[in-house]
Amino acid sequence: MSDFVYILSSVTSALCAVLLLRSYARARQRLLLWSGLAFVGFTLNNALLWVDIRALPNVDLSAWRLVPAVLGLMVLCYGLIWETT
Known about the structure:
Blueprint: H1 2-27, H2 30-55, H3 62-82
């Protein structure tokens, strides 16, 4: 059951990323771009979480799976801070 939750969270994040980036392609609102790129990072984070816990249980990937999440948050913070001025 936990595999289903991990995969579902990855698919949900990927769907959000696709929808946001597709909306950016149509509307050219830069905040949609930054949000879409952030969700790409969140998707990678969720996928690496599944790899860390299920595929490679003896290998600690916690530092590696945090990198895409932090980069995604940095991109989102950049977009929120600099696109409002």
